[in-house]
C-alpha cells in the first residue's frame, strides 16, 4: 500500500491565543507545522485534482480552527485542529502537528507543543 505524507512548514498565523493579560488583548503570531499520513483511495489522475487530497483544503481547515475564536491554551488549540483534520479527511491515517509561539520568550526562537494522533 502506498502512503503519502502531506506537510506544511511554518504556516504563519495571527491567532487569538493565550491566557495572560496581554495575550487576551491582542493577536499573536503562531507557527504551525503539520504532517499528515495519507492513504490514497484511488490512483492519482494528473488531470483531476479530485483524485488526490487537496492540500488547500487542509490549509483552510487549519486556518479556520486557529482563527475562529480566542483559545486560552495551545494544548486545546492543538486538540481542536487534530480532531478536525481526522474528522474532515477520512483518508488521513495520522496527524503530527506542532504549534509554536515565537514571541513567548526573548531568549529562545519559539516554544510550543507537538501533537500526534493516529486513526
Automatic annotation (TrEMBL):
Gene Ontology MF: a single term: dihydroneopterin aldolase activity
Pathway(s) annotated for this protein in UniProt: Cofactor biosynthesis; tetrahydrofolate biosynthesis; 2-amino-4-hydroxy-6-hydroxymethyl-7,8-dihydropteridine diphosphate from 7,8-dihydroneopterin triphosphate: step 3/4
Keywords: Folate biosynthesis, Lyase
InterPro entries: Dihydroneopterin_aldolase, FolB_dom, GTP-CH-I_C/QueF
GO biological process: folic acid biosynthetic process; tetrahydrofolate biosynthetic process
CC per GO annotation: cytoplasm
The EC number(s) this enzyme carries: 4.1.2.25
Superkingdom of the source species: Bacteria
Gene3D superfamilies the record matches: 3.30.1130.10
Limits of the Dihydroneopterin aldolase/epimerase domain: 6-117
Reactions performed catalytically: 7,8-dihydroneopterin = 6-hydroxymethyl-7,8-dihydropterin + glycolaldehyde
Family: Belongs to the DHNA family.
PANTHER family the UniProt entry points to: DIHYDRONEOPTERIN ALDOLASE 1-RELATED
Function: Catalyzes the conversion of 7,8-dihydroneopterin to 6-hydroxymethyl-7,8-dihydropterin.
Protein name per Swiss-Prot or TrEMBL: 7,8-dihydroneopterin aldolase
Source species: Pelistega suis
Gene giving rise to this polypeptide: folB
Amino acid at each position: 500500500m502506498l502512503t503519502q505524507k502531506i506537510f506544511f512548514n511554518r504556516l504563519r498565523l495571527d491567532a487569538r491565543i493565550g491566557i495572560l493579560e496581554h495575550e487576551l488583548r491582542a493577536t499573536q503570531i503562531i507557527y504551525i507545522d503539520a504532517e499528515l499520513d495519507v492513504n490514497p483511495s484511488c490512483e492519482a489522475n494528473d488531470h483531476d485534482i479530485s483524485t488526490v487530497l487537496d492540500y488547500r483544503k487542509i490549509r483552510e481547515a487549519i486556518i479556520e480552527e486557529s482563527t475562529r475564536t480566542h483559545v486560552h491554551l495551545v494544548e486545546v488549540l492543538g486538540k481542536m485542529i487534530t480532531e478536525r483534520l481526522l474528522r474532515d479527511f477520512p483518508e488521513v491515517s495520522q496527524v503530527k502537528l506542532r504549534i509554536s509561539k515565537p514571541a513567548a520568550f526573548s531568549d529562545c526562537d519559539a516554544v510550543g507543543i507537538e501533537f500526534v494522533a493516529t486513526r
